[in-house]
Design goal:
The complex is a heterodimer. By secondary structure, chain A is α/β, with parallel strands linked by helices. Chain A has helices at about 10-15, 25-55, 65-80, 95-105, 120-125, 135, 140-150, 150-155, 180-185, 195-205, 225-235, 265-280, 290-300, 360-370, 375-380, 390-395, 405-415, 425-440, 445-460, and strands at about 55-60, 85-90, 115, 160, 165, 165-170, 175-180, 215, 305-310, 325-330, 350-355. In chain A, about 45% of the residues lie in helices and about 10% in strands. Chain A is globular and about 60 Å long. By secondary structure, chain B is mostly helical. The mean pLDDT of chain B is about 85. Classes of the chains: A alpha/beta, B mainly alpha.
């Protein structure tokens, strides 16, 4: 059989004749291969041409106003200023976002120009990330604005060996919230200490059952573990001897934890306070997620809470029409023997990390800087973002509907860090578990602290930190 | 006769030097089975071997060092941990309670619908009763989480209207597990109902008519006619539901994640939490192997016990 020409005409003629074209296997393969090669070459040319023309950035993030919406608003503003740039914001839920970071950084991650980055991932990822100091130094004006505005004990969480690997994107921390009209009416004191919170809770409950105190104490997202850690820090306690702000919650064989101190008097005092609060709190606390705490304020169910700062929407008239001007926040409370207001609460937040393999490093650095600049603040904040720069936070905090920003500015400097080592999530899980034993009445505070200490010692020993 | 002739042909072929044909015939079944074997290796045996290997290593997704071989350490720490013991007990309580409730309710509903089958509109009743199965489990769990919310959930709202105290359905450690069981019962009783009803329809009407003529009470009709007639169907439903309940996961994670405290913390939740919250893959692999062994043992014992009763395996009714 001879090779036949495999073109549209052949097919059409064959169709007209009512039977298939006479094509040999070799002829078909040759034709298909040639077609595929031409198609691939032309699409590659088109694609590269498009990239070269449009300077496309791909940034990954998680959903939610603080991240997705703030980034998208910033991207829109940046693209309006730079018509030749296009920015794609890829959104995935928490676990998928972390998987995307993990799997992309196993290889060169060249498909992405920046990831919204949790500082707990820096230790395993920094070799694949772009060191940013040189880029900071190229723009001294922005560098000074950034360095002076974002507290060291916050932005340092995204450093490794003193080298920054992210530009801090947003700010988040735990804080105290209350209804100032109810407090004024009942003559209650500002909840600056946990002892006051407890007293207030009892008095508020007498007026309206369940309104006295509420918090996030669910197993979800280690809410209870985070709340306890904030309280422990506010009572002057520590996880272990070397748990200090300048270590950013990092552990390694060269940076061991020292003796575990989870059964110290300060820790027991914090756990006892948690137990006492659990006896008067709104019972929804034990399974509450952030939106439920917010709804409790919006619907006049709760009048005093310890919560994360994602509640900024509660001071917005559109989001909370009835009580927006009656809700007020302050930095997390102190307790026990601690009077040092610079060590209290718990902080979180995310940065923008650029993979070394990004094809658009300079452009991406420029966009990341733009996100944090004062000129973008309105876009960023109105979309739901919480900026990391204290100058912005304090300035916007002058407006009643952004009063919470002033508390964030304090909280990100004072709050306890996350656990930035491989076993960190399990540490929070253990704390959540033992604090859970206390608030459900399974264990007394002293016993729970001793059990927690033992479990954490085993964890650190198995992790090889020579605890 | 035909077989003997074929065998003779084969032997003749071999004898006459046509062994290639014979080998081809022998090879054909192996080749036909090969895709299934490859798929089995890739999707079941391979991952299982990988699971065992992972269970023998200290492996954390956040760590910067390679996994470290630790022998049976992961199993040792699992067995001595109180949360494993708690999880085991909670899993059994969850499975047994939900199974009993689903069976009783499913059977009662099926018997009721079967008895009233000739009434008009029963097709609609049947359809309505089975709709919960159509809801995705995760959606059902989230929906119930909202309904259970103590302050603004619809259930407590209704209780408040009639002056009944409002419990913290998912935040009270004494009732949280049972509130989750109620969700599972709501969703899966219709499955039991449907299968049992199908079994009841398979029983000849004449038997019931004869029983009625003999003056047999409805209860005796169920115990002496319905149940013995379709024991096998019941056993299959029992096994399917038990397997499902022992590995129940989404309904718990979407409502309480095992809380409050550890009030609804079961073994599948422990596996999930260890792997995808703590990122301790070695520990999670060890826990999931233990879960696999427990489920296998429970199911095997159940099948054996039932076989002795002559319900399965013996071909007797």
């Amino acid at each position: 059989m001879t090779d036949a020409k495999f073109d549209r005409g052949t097919v059409q003629r064959a169709a007209e004749r009512g039977h298939a074209p006479s094509v040999s296997r070799r002829g078909f393969l040759k034709g298909a291969a040639a077609g595929a090669a031409i198609a691939a070459a032309s699409s590659a040319v088109t694609w590269r041409g498009a990239i070269a023309e449009s300077k496309k950035l791909v940034v990954t993030t998680m959903p939610g106003p603080r991240w997705e919406m703030a980034l998208k608003a910033s991207a829109k503003a940046y693209m309006e200023k730079n018509k030749d740039v296009s920015i794609e914001v890829l959104v995935s839920p928490y676990a998928e976002h972390y998987q995307r970071i993990g799997t992309s950084l196993i290889e060169d991650s060249s498909d992405f120009d920046a990831h919204l980055f949790d500082p707990v991932l820096i230790g395993q990822s920094y070799p694949k990330l772009l060191p940013l100091q040189e880029h900071f130094d190229k723009d001294p004006e922005w560098r000074d604005y950034y360095i002076n505005g974002v507290p060291y004990f916050y932005r340092g969480s995204w450093d490794w060996d003193g080298v920054p690997y992210s530009i801090v994107h947003d700010a988040n921390c735990m804080m105290t919230w209350w209804r100032k009209d109810v407090f004024a009416g009942a003559g209650l004191a500002e909840p600056a200490r946990f002892e006051t919170i407890l007293e207030n809770a009892k008095k508020l409950n007498e007026k309206k059952p369940g309104a006295g105190f509420m918090t996030c104490a669910a197993r979800n997202a280690w809410f209870l573990g985070m709340t306890y850690t904030g309280m422990m820090w506010g009572f002057g306690g520590k996880w272990y001897e070397n748990d200090s702000p300048e270590r950013f919650g990092r552990l390694s064989k060269d940076n061991p934890p020292g003796k575990v101190t989870l059964d110290s008097p300060e820790n027991i005092a914090a756990m006892t306070m948690l137990r006492d609060l659990s006896k008067v709190w709104n019972e929804a606390s034990l399974n509450a997620q952030e939106f439920e705490n917010a709804e409790a304020f919006k619907n006049d169910v709760s009048h005093q809470q310890i919560m994360w700062s994602g509640f900024m929407i509660l001071q917005n008239p559109k989001e909370n029409p009835n009580f927006h001007d009656k809700l007020v926040s302050r930095d997390f409370a102190l307790g026990g023997t601690n009077n040092d207001a610079s060590k209290t609460g718990m902080k979180g937040g995310f940065g923008l990390a650029i993979p070394k393999a990004s094809k658009n490093i300079d452009l991406m650095v420029d966009f990341a800087k733009f996100v944090t600049r004062p000129e973008n603040a309105e876009n960023f904040i109105l979309a739901g973002g919480q900026p990391s720069n204290t100058s912005l936070l304090n300035k916007w905090g002058e407006q009643p509907q952004y009063q919470v920003f002033k508390s964030i500015a304090q909280g990100i400097a004072n709050g306890h860090h996350l656990a930035q080592f491989a076993e960190g999530p399990e540490l929070f899980q253990l704390i959540t578990q033992h604090a859970g034993d206390v608030v459900t009445g399974k264990a007394e505070p002293e016993q729970a602290c001793v059990n927690m200490k033992k479990d954490v010692e085993v964890l650190l020993e198995r992790g090889g930190y020579n605890a | 006769m035909r077989l003997r002739r074929r065998r003779a042909t084969e032997l003749a072929a071999v004898g006459s030097g046509q062994s290639r044909v014979y080998r081809g015939e022998r090879l054909a079944p192996a080749l036909m089975l090969a895709p299934s074997v490859v798929i089995l290796l890739a999707l079941v045996i391979g991952p299982f071997v990988f699971l065992i290997d992972t269970a023998l290593h200290r492996q954390n997704l956040f760590q910067t060092t390679p996994p470290r071989y630790v022998g049976a350490d992961n199993f040792y720490y699992l067995f001595i941990s109180t949360k494993f013991q708690v999880a085991l007990v909670r899993m059994l309580v969850f499975a047994v309670t939900a199974l009993a409730a689903e069976f009783v309710l499913g059977f009662v509903l099926a018997a009721w619908v079967h008895r009233l089958r000739d009434l008009p509109g029963m097709a609609i009743v049947r359809t309505l009763l089975t709709t919960p199965i159509l809801v995705a489990p995760i959606v059902a769990a989230v929906m119930w989480r909202f309904m259970y919310q103590p302050d603004f959930g619809v259930i407590n709202y209704i209780l408040g209207l009639v002056g009944i105290p409002k419990p913290g359905w998912l935040s009270d450690p004494d009732i949280a597990l049972f509130a989750i069981i109620a969700i599972d019962v709501w969703q899966w009783t219709p499955f039991v109902f449907l299968i049992v009803l199908a079994g009841m329809y398979a029983i000849p009407r004449s038997l019931y008519e004869a029983a009625k003529l003999d003056g047999t009470s409805p209860w005796r009709q169920i115990t002496h006619l319905t149940i013995p007639w379709f024991k096998r169907v019941l056993v299959i439903v029992l096994l399917l539901r038990l397997i499902d309940l022992l590995r129940a996961f989404e309904v718990i994670v979407a409502t309480t994640q095992g809380g409050p405290g550890d009030a609804s913390y079961t073994l599948p939740v422990l596996v999930w939490e260890t792997a995808f919250v703590n990122f301790q893959m070695g520990d999670a692999a060890a826990a999931s192997l233990v879960l696999l062994v427990i489920v296998t043992i429970v199911i095997t014992l159940l099948i054996r016990a039932i076989s002795r009763q002559g319900v399965v395996g013996q071909g007797r009714r």
